[in-house]
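Dear H.,

Thanks for agreeing to be a second pair of eyes. The structure we're designing against is below in token form, covering all 389 positions.
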């Protein structure tokens, strides 16, 4: 079956748009960041490139449209590289990426060839090779190196660089109209291969974002464990079974005051960033041996062991204060003066053990009561005696 170029480019537009939307929806549920913006712009320029090549095909390969298409293709890889550097906490070097894009566009406009379809091809292919290798190199550095998902980017970008290098070699030695070039590297074939690379990169970035989400919750202090929601009940029960007789299990529900309103007002990305700052504040203060997990609606559950009687209750209040203060300080410093508050609900087990599920429900109810009453913490003992602050 033969697929004409125009049909393949229409498919390219649809696939690029779908990958961008897919990645955007996934990223909307996670921590916002500059690397996110760079990667999103990469998908946008990929879509622009596909649309431009389609327009060039339908309008007789105008050199200006080809220049835009070539520049957009290079910009998509440059954005991936810039985002990877930002992910690793390094300088973006966006000006260097812009230089690649500018050289590609200018070379297409100034190319003296009589065939606009191939205007600026050499500069475009060289830029793609260099940027692909830079992405692969950056993916094996810094924070990305510790992420197994980064191997997807490394493999994909190395394959892309090799494929493009071989295409460039055949282009220079045999020309774009030679039999070998048409058989191996015709525009429809290259478009198909590019679709495979786009989908693979999208999958790699989503896996990388998934790893980042898990890292934010598992970046605990020594002695503090982060587990999944389903494992939390079992781990909390195991913590209670292993504690001494003069200690009690306490379940803490920590959440952001007015989280639902904040998410609706500022978007899910900002809400995710607030959650990350809250998790960091909680981890800094938890005593060794604690177990925690994150549940829906921006809530973090913690299981910890405390002394029986007034001493343990006082310790819970002393734990709540620095968590709330640390979160408030973090959001003020990192979110341009954005003000926020965290409140806690605590359920303390009795001498006759209460099911952990019940303690979780009591702690979440206590936290909701604290938010409604404007309190920072509300402690509920098994006998329903409360202490407020």
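And this is the sequence the design step returned. I haven't edited it by hand at all.
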């Amino acid at each position: 079956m033969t697929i004409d170029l125009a049909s393949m480019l229409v498919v390219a537009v649809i696939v690029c748009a779908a990958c961008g939307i897919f990645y955007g929806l996934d990223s909307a549920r996670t921590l916002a960041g500059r690397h996110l913006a760079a990667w999103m712009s990469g998908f946008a320029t990929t879509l622009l490139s596909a649309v431009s090549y389609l327009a060039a095909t339908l309008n007789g390969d105008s050199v200006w449209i080809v220049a835009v298409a070539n520049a957009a293709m290079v910009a998509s890889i440059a954005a991936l590289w810039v985002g990877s550097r930002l992910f690793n906490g390094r300088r973006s070097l966006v000006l260097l990426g812009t230089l690649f894009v500018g050289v590609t566009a200018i070379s297409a406009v100034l190319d003296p060839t009589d065939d606009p379809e191939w205007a600026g091809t050499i500069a475009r292919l060289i830029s793609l090779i260099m940027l692909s290798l830079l992405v692969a190199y950056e993916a094996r550095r810094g924070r990305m190196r510790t992420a197994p998902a980064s191997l997807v980017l490394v493999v994909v970008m190395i394959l892309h660089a090799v494929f493009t290098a071989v295409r460039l070699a055949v282009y220079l030695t045999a020309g774009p109209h030679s039999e070998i070039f048409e058989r191996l590297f015709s525009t429809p074939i290259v478009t198909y291969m590019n679709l495979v690379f786009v989908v693979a990169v999208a999958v790699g970035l989503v896996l990388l974002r998934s790893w980042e989400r898990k890292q934010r919750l598992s970046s605990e202090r020594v002695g503090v464990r982060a587990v999944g929601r389903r494992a939390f009940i079992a781990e909390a029960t195991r913590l209670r079974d292993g504690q001494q007789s003069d200690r009690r299990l306490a379940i803490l529900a920590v959440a952001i005051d007015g989280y639902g309103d904040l998410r609706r007002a500022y978007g899910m990305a900002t809400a995710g960033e607030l959650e990350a700052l809250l998790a960091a504040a909680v981890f800094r203060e938890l005593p060794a041996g604690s177990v925690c997990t994150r549940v829906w609606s921006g809530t973090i559950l913690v299981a910890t062991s405390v002394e029986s009687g007034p001493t343990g209750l006082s310790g819970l209040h002393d734990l709540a204060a620095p968590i709330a203060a640390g979160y408030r300080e973090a959001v003020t410093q990192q979110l341009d003066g954005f003000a926020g508050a965290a409140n806690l609900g605590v359920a303390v087990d009795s001498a006759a053990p209460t099911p952990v599920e019940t303690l979780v429900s009591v702690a979440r109810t206590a936290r909701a009561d604290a938010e409604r009453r404007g309190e920072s913490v509300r402690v509920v003992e098994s006998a329903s005696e409360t202490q407020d602050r």
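Two observations from my side: The first strand starts at residue 225 and ends at 226. Residues 5-217 form a domain with the Rhopdopsin 7-helix transmembrane proteins fold (CATH 1.20.1070.10).

Warmly,
E.
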